[in-house]
Each structure stands twice: as structure tokens, then as C-alpha cells.
Amino acid sequence: MFAEERHSRIAELVSAQGRVGVNDLAELFSITQETVRRDLAALEEAGQLRRVHGGAVSVDRLTRSELSLSERQSQHLDEKHRIATAALALIPNVPRASILLDSGTTTAALAERLTSWAPVNTGDELLVITNSLPMAATLSTNTHLLLDIVGGRVRGLTSAVVGARATEQLGALRPDIAFIGTNGLHTDFGLSTPDPVEAATKTAMVRAARQVIVLADASKLGTETLVRFATLEEIDTLVTTAEPSAELAAALAAAGVEVVIA
């Protein structure tokens, strides 16, 4: 195999898996570890990956890397729809319920499901509170819902309302359930996101709710980004699309987190 072809294959593996190891690549291509390291150095120089101890990671796994809302909307669509269906089933059919929807593309899939929500009994109400401008617009099409939007500064990259005013409002609320998105969920580091201001808003959501349900596709498991906004002990349920690793599963169990596989 020529070096150019090998580089292309390594780049594909990093993109698909998020991380590759020097030993694994050496075995896969029947080359020396030194050759692998030269390959990784060339690919890093080309901006296709970032070298780390023992291997390399995808550039979107850097702790401050963050795609825009529009870029993320087309990723892991099937997983997001499955998570949304499972999350919808967790909303209780009671006369008066309140939920908080965090901004994000997985929570947005749940918002889409809620556009067809209707009360089981006449007079039943569901209040939905969100800090997402696009989700507020989506939810406003369902006249059966009561809809509140958190006020504050709008972060352009995610169209999320964040900042001191938003966190102050959230601190005065006590919704029944908060559905929270995350960029990473890690055994030791907990839940994290790249932006400090958005992290502060997520922390306020977690602390406000009576029950915290995290919606995260399998690509988020085992990942750390820059700012932790919650520990595993602060969440009640994780809805995801694959069994967590043995290490993460043990940490979730120790923290009392229920895992729902969608």
C-alpha cells in the first residue's frame, strides 16, 4: 500500500472512530510504529487529525471544537430520532407537567415530536420551557402546548439563549424534567461542552430541575470537551443509542444513573 493511500485510510478511521492508536495502526498496515508516527505527523500538518499520546484524535474531538447548529443537524439523524422517541415516552401523562428543553440538535428532535403532542384528557397542560430560538419557533406551531422561552443573550453558533440573565431566570424555576444535551459524557469528567457561557446555562438547568434526563448519541460517550457543567451524580437518566463502555457503565451505575438504550 502506498503512503498516500495509507494516509487516506488513516484519516477515514480517525473520522469514523474519533481516535486511533499507534499500535493498532502498525498492526493493521503491517508497518513499524515509527512509520505510523511519520504518517500521523504528515496528517496533522495537513490538518486532518491531532496527535496525542499513543495515537491521534479527530480534530472535532479537541476540547474547544464545536460545529454550528446547521452542521450538526445532519449528523447521526437516525440516532437522534430514536433518542427523541424514547425521551417522549418519559414525559408523564399528568394533568399539569412542566419540562425544560436545552438547546441542541438531539433535544430539537424531541421538540419535533412535541409538535404533535395533545392532552390525553381535556384540560391537561404541558408547559415547555426552552432556551433555544429555533425550538421555540418549532414548538409554537402546537397550540396545545404552553410555551415559555428563557431570555438573555443569543449565542450565534448554537442559537441558544445564554448568559447571566438566562441563568438567573433558570434559578427561579423548578420544572419537573430537564432534557439536557451534551457534547461529551465521560467517566471522570462528567458532562461537558466547549463554551463556558453555555456551560453555565446548562449547569443552571441541571440544578433547576426535579429530574435530569440527558439525551446523547453514542458519539458523545467517553468524550471530554473544555468545560464541565454537571457530574454524573447530578443526572438521573441517560438516553443513548449504544451500551456504554464497561468503565462508563460502572461509573453511571455507581452514580445511580438509569441508562435507556434507544
TrEMBL record:
Pfam families reported in the protein's UniProt record: DeoRC (PF00455), HTH_DeoR (PF08220)
| TM annotation in the entry | none
Which UniProt keywords are given for this protein, alphabetically ordered?
DNA-binding, Repressor, Transcription, Transcription regulation, Transferase
Report the Gene3D superfamilies cross-referenced here. Answer: 3.40.50.1360, Winged helix-like DNA-binding domain superfamily/Winged helix DNA-binding domain
Top-level taxon of origin: Bacteria
GO terms assigned for molecular function: DNA binding; DNA-binding transcription factor activity; transferase activity
The UniProt entry's coiled-coil ranges are none
Task: Provide the HTH deoR-type domain boundaries.
Answer: 3-58
Q: What does this protein do?
A: Repressor of the lactose catabolism operon. Galactose-6-phosphate is the inducer.
What is this protein called in UniProt?
Lactose phosphotransferase system repressor
Originating organism: Arthrobacter alpinus
